């Protein structure tokens, strides 16, 4: 029996409502609908994560629309194909793996702060999402909850991952035993893609660095590579980190590059590319920035 078959047997037995037939049909649907991407039913990490998905609580912070003149000023020097990739700037840590836990929200929040830490002039450092899991009571909620906790309780700082390592399950909050990182969260906000072009989000990505946001992860089922161009589902059940935006000249498709938390063997070395602009793909309608 293959490794994937063994995993399927284990997970389906534990989750009787999640049938292999549903997964197979979903991957087949994604493959048929997205000619510019590759999908494979033998996506072990994706299947395991899919069985743990649940609807994320919506943000309580009203998203704002970046002023048109500011968008123009930021994108004006980039020509008609604006692009940015914070990975090449050294602002993005290695892809992580949440494992069999519904902790995507904590990765999206902590990795947002990793980018902020870099932009504040410090060494790129893995930050503790386990501290957020143990101390914030933000399970399954948007990054707003974690950021409010830090602003109200830690002065905007979070411990390093080395001093407060990831376990996945909720444990005792031991913030004072960890080593505080150099990051200082001062404020945060949310940018809305009001006109559906994605320009406001790309401008915010250029201005604020990597940004967290929610997606409909059914669009990711079986994904192996390429650009997802036709998945307009919008039931937000997964949190991720936007790190880049660009254009695939061969496909003539503008896209976002998203860092996932399903390990480096998933997708494009842990990343997925999703088309930007209308119609909205995978539910991406707003992003959370930090300063």
Describe this structure as you would to a colleague.
- With 291 residues, the protein is of the alpha+beta class.
- The protein has one domain: Cysteine proteinases (Cathepsin B, Chain A).
- 29% of the residues lie in helices and 17% in strands.
- The protein contains 8 helices and 9 strands.
- It has helices spanning 3-14, 20-33, 44-50, 68-75, 104-119, 129-135, 143-153, 199-208, and strands at 37-39, 84-85, 188-192, 211-215, 223-228, 238-248, 253-259, 271-275, 286-290.
- Strands 1, 2, 4, 5, 6, 7 and 8 form a 7-stranded mixed β-sheet that branches.
- A hairpin with a 4-residue loop joins strand 6 (238-248) and strand 7 (253-259).
- The model has no long low-confidence stretch (mean pLDDT 90).
What's the quick description here?
29% of the residues lie in helices and 17% in strands. By secondary structure, it is an alpha+beta fold. The protein is globular and about 50 Å long.
